[in-house]
Amino acid sequence: MLKPGNAASESLREELRARVAGALGKPLRPEALKFVDDLPKTRNAKIMRRVVRSAYLNQTAGDLSALENPQSVEAIRNAI
User: Fold this and answer.
1) Residue 7, SS3 per DSSP
2) Chain mean position to CA 64
3) CB-based contacts of 60, cutoff 8 Å, min separation 6
4) Within 13 Å of residue 2, how many CA atoms lie on the same side as its CB?
5) pTM reported for the whole predicted model
6) pLDDT tier at 80, thresholds 50, 70, 90
């Protein structure tokens, strides 16, 4: 998620990928980096990583009854 006042751009995407490579090493540099407005969270504000993974891979997400913001799943699927 971007902080208010920042815009998604290719230069920002490449800068973030380079920072990850610098901090964790080139083998862990992300292949793709997508910008979204919100992440799927439970009512306790925990990020549901399995839902993020399944949305990114275009797989069925399974039980979404614990999601506070189900629209975020579709936003991940449509992110550029």
Assistant:
1) coil
2) 17
3) 54
4) 14
5) 0.75
6) confident
